[in-house]
């Protein structure tokens, strides 16, 4: 097992540029805007060509779910309800192997789940890491900005729209705390998806989603990767993160140095074995990190190392 771990880590380090673990930033510009950018891209490939799964509120998949063959990487449309009766909709991207971990993606305010494929980044299919049909070697995603992964690494991915966004029902709210309800329901739904390991769930989120993946990381959640957090849901980031770290869960925080409250939010917790911070220049916020032409050289390496450590 140790040899396999070393092989995977070696592959990751060779496949990408060096890490960029942050040093503590200088004072940020308080006058810079902190509002989440609006979405401009709406792309999800072939998302209507497969069966729909209605995820039950229990932890056990219904027979109609388990009967669906997971034999190709195309997304499957899903829907699930929140405790207050709102129907949320999303997509399930199956891993190349059974019983793989689940990565739950949580988008930012005024955006939707289609943002995860900004400018055809290929980020979701990169996480799935299905072998090519023609037996050729796998190719990098995001125009080469994401490294080629070891074939043994494959992840289920679940995206969804917060209420009032994208394809989900409900109304948007100026009180972002309501999205914590949606985030908890999403983690719960992920545990009921077919052929997943319900004990290995992690979250990746941006802006309000960055706080949501941490604030809702409770039963079954193994860790969270927060990009541009700011205690947006009205819950103190440092307190939520500290609770996860006390439980031995892995947390990562990423920010741009001139992006409003995000630098101070990330540094409200000192880095340690389970908590790492990544800082980059400029004012990038949230989903902007996923744009291929703006993607940082070590972005993919940081993501995959987090997923490997949190789910092994």
Average pLDDT for all residues: 82
Task: Report how far the terminal alpha carbons are from each other.
Answer: 11 Å
User: Order of strands side by side in the largest beta sheet?
Assistant: 1-2-3-5-4-6-7-8-9
What oligomeric state best describes the polypeptide chains here?
single chain
Number of strands: 9
The structural class is alpha/beta
Order of helices and strands: HEHEEEHEHEHEHEHEH
User: What name does the CATH topology carry?
Assistant: Rossmann fold
CATH H-level homologous superfamily name: Alpha/Beta hydrolase fold, catalytic domain
Low-pLDDT parts are 1-19, 25-51, 56-68
* Largest β sheet strand count, sense and barrel closure: 9 strands, mixed
- The helix content, as a percent range, equals 10-25%
CATH architecture name: 3-Layer(aba) Sandwich
Question: What share of the residues does DSSP label as strand, in percent?
Answer: 15-25%
The domain count comes to 1
List its traits.
globular, 312 residues, nine-stranded mixed beta sheet, Rossmann fold, alpha/beta, 8 helices
């Amino acid at each position: 097992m140790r040899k396999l771990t070393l092989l995977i880590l070696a592959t990751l380090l060779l496949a990408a540029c060096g890490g960029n673990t942050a040093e503590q930033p200088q004072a940020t510009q308080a006058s810079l805007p902190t509002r989440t950018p609006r979405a401009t891209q709406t792309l999800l490939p072939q998302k209507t060509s497969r069966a729909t799964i209605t995820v039950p509120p229990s932890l056990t998949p219904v027979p109609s779910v388990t009967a669906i063959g997971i034999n190709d990487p195309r997304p499957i449309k899903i829907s699930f309800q929140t405790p207050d009766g709102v129907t949320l909709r999303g997509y399930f991207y199956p891993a190349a192997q059974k019983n793989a971990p689940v990565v739950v993606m949580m988008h930012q305010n005024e955006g939707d789940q289609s943002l995860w494929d900004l400018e055809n980044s290929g980020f979701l299919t990169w996480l799935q890491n299905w072998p090519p049909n023609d037996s050729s070697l796998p190719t990098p995603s995001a125009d080469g900005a994401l490294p080629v992964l070891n074939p043994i690494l494959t992840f289920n991915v679940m995206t969804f729209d917060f209420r009032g966004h994208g394809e989900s029902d409900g109304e948007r709210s100026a009180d972002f705390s309501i999205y914590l309800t949606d985030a908890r329901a999403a983690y719960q739904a992920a545990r009921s998806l077919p052929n997943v390991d319900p004990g290995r769930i992690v979250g990746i989120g941006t802006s309000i989603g960055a706080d949501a993946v941490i604030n809702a990381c409770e039963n079954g959640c193994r860790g969270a990767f927060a990009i541009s957090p700011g205690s947006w849901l009205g819950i103190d980031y440092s307190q939520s993160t500290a609770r996860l770290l006390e439980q031995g869960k892995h947390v990562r925080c990423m920010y741009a140095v001139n992006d409003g409250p995000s630098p101070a939010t990330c540094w409200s917790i000192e880095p340690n074995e389970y908590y790492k911070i990544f800082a980059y220049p400029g004012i990038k916020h949230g989903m902007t990190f996923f744009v291929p032409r703006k993607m940082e050289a070590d972005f993919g390496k940081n993501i995959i190392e987090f997923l490997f450590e949190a789910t092994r």
